Amino acid sequence: MPIRPYTLAIPDAALADLAQRLANARWADALDSDSWADGTNPAYLARVISHWRERFDWRAQEQRLNRLPQFITEVDGQGIHFIHQRGRGPAPLPLVITHGWPGSFIEIEPLLPLLADPAAHGGDAADAFDVVVPSLPGYGASPAPRQAGTGSRRIASLWQGLMAQLGYPRFGAQGGDIGAGVGLWLAREHAEQVLGVHLNYVPASFRPPLGEGQPPLSSEEQAYLERLAAFAASEGAYALLQGTKPQTLAFALADSPLGLAAWIIEKFHAWSDHGGDLEQVLDLDTVLTDISLYWFSASLQASLRLYKENRQQPLAFYPGERPQVPLGVALFPKELPMPPRSWLARSFDVQRWAYQRKGGHFAALEQPQLLAEEIRAFFRPLRSSLIAV
């Protein structure tokens, strides 16, 4: 399939079906209608659904998104939707950015102008990037995989193939959440093509070599593993379900936009740095555009199943395995459990480790300026390597 332009165009019938389902939604009762303790706050969800039904304008969002340079192609039999925003500067560096769950390509949208045209946003034109933002298979506009086996490892290979199609033999990679895992797989298996990898999250599945012949765990590393275990026990039910029985959950979410909204909004609320008011950092139209992309994609099963695929192919490194790809990490204060630098340094050349003053798991949406500045700073000294090649 050649690369061709892509336009979002949800049929009127799909919009009417959504409106009817929202109007006829069956609400679960709750012991406390104004609490997040048992999951999504019922009162807040009612506010979100009211906005979705009465004020949210999908067509306006669709029109806005269609102003982005969107394309679709096929790599190794898999359809891939992507944004390709070319940079404005003397030598834009190719950069592939991967979103996560429950995000979509709109998660990266605020970064596009900051990275592609830094001079227009208080930066230096020499830091410009050609930004490529693919949609994960089954997320939003990329078709769902037609067979099992598409985890972050295969996605990394798909991205390498996509960048080759676009004429980028070497490129940088960036990501958070699932995108962080894709970035580490790119570094691990495509080191010759990858100039550097920048992350704003370190996947819990990443495991450097431990045990006999390896340095003992430091107190910081042990504390990190304890934080991971505590998070899994108190907040990890979503990942365990999506990683083991995604099909069962998919039936519920594919049939109920109310259920889908509750499933996703809980994570936006829990994982963002908002001080108690989510809409201080993420407005409802942004959140509902993301949820609507999941709903209209009709591929809920694929978006959930990616967790199962990644459980079956964990990022466990072998003794002596050390990709020769520079790594940078931006640490946001309300992020999920993050390891100390030494944890990653067991397997990678960590060249930048930068703490941020605010922000959470959805850094590209919450604090795009801070994240963009970090991405520019990490890749700045690596640009000469690309020019040399």
Characterise the protein shown here.
43% of the residues lie in helices and 13% in strands. The protein has 389 residues and is an alpha/beta fold. The protein has a single domain, classed as Alpha/Beta hydrolase fold, catalytic domain (Rossmann fold), CATH 3.40.50. The protein has a nine-stranded mixed sheet with strand order 1-2-3-5-4-6-7-8-9, sandwiched between helices. Helix 6 links the parallel strand 6 and strand 7. The longest helix has 17 residues, at 219-235. The chain is globular, with a radius of gyration of 20 Å.
Write the layout of secondary structure elements.
Blueprint (H helix, E strand, L loop, with lengths): L3 E2 L6 H12 L18 H13 L3 H8 L4 E6 L2 E8 L7 E6 L12 H6 L12 E6 L17 H14 L5 E5 L2 H12 L4 E6 L19 H17 L1 H8 L1 H10 L1 H15 L12 H14 L2 H13 L13 E6 L9 H5 L3 E7 L7 H4 L1 H12 L3 H6 L1
Parallel strand pairs: 4-5, 4-6, 6-7, 7-8, 8-9
Antiparallel strand pairs: 1-2, 2-3, 3-5
Helix pairs in contact: 5-6, 8-12, 9-10, 9-12, 10-11
Name a few traits of the molecule.
389 residues, alpha/beta, Rossmann fold, 16 helices
Distance N to C terminus: 29 Å
CATH architecture: 3-Layer(aba) Sandwich
If strands are numbered along the chain, what order do they take across the biggest sheet?
A: 1-2-3-5-4-6-7-8-9
Question: How much of the residues is beta strand, in percent?
Answer: 5-15%
Specify the CATH homologous superfamily. Alpha/Beta hydrolase fold, catalytic domain
**How large is the radius of gyration?**
20 Å
* H-E string: EHHHEEEHEHEHEHHHHHHEHEHHH
- Tell me the domain tally: 1
Percent helix, as a range, is 40-55%
The number of E-state strands comes to 9
**Helical segment count:** 16
Largest sheet: 9 strands, mixed
The CATH topology label is Rossmann fold
**CATH class bucket:** Alpha Beta
Q: Structural class, please? A: alpha/beta
Please tell me the overall pLDDT.
97
Shape, please? globular
| Uncertain runs | none
